């Protein structure tokens, strides 16, 4: 689905673009997509000389679920001394948190196509091997234990 844009970026930027065809939910539950992206990135970075790429110029990028995967791959690789450091990550409308679907951004954009608030919660459930029967709990925020909500409120809150 992204071949044309990847080819365009590669051609116009004179870049090497590696597009990972990771396994998709709901057929392949978490952590399948993450493992595919992580393994592909590690393989590329360990064999970077073969591809003629400057190790100081590796960027991971993704949109939607791919943006989320790019973020988690970046975090996973941040402490790896055996691999080159990533130069940057480009995250295009990633889903970065599923703790609270009542934050202002979800409320302000709840009816904005394409990714309605309910649809975002549904996809999060699909990705995490959850069941759609739990949709209302997720939308209300009752799927997160109170102690976890307190622990992460510094980072995930309307403030």
Automatic annotation (TrEMBL):
<dbReference type="GO" id="GO:0016787">
    <property type="term" value="F:hydrolase activity"/>
</dbReference>
<dbReference type="InterPro" id="IPR029058">
    <property type="entry name" value="AB_hydrolase_fold"/>
</dbReference>
<feature type="domain" description="Alpha/beta hydrolase fold-3">
    <location>
        <begin position="1"/>
        <end position="133"/>
    </location>
</feature>
<keyword id="KW-0378">Hydrolase</keyword>
<dbReference type="InterPro" id="IPR050300">
    <property type="entry name" value="GDXG_lipolytic_enzyme"/>
</dbReference>
<protein>
    <submittedName>
        <fullName>ADCL3 protein</fullName>
    </submittedName>
</protein>
<dbReference type="Pfam" id="PF07859">
    <property type="entry name" value="Abhydrolase_3"/>
</dbReference>
<dbReference type="InterPro" id="IPR013094">
    <property type="entry name" value="AB_hydrolase_3"/>
</dbReference>
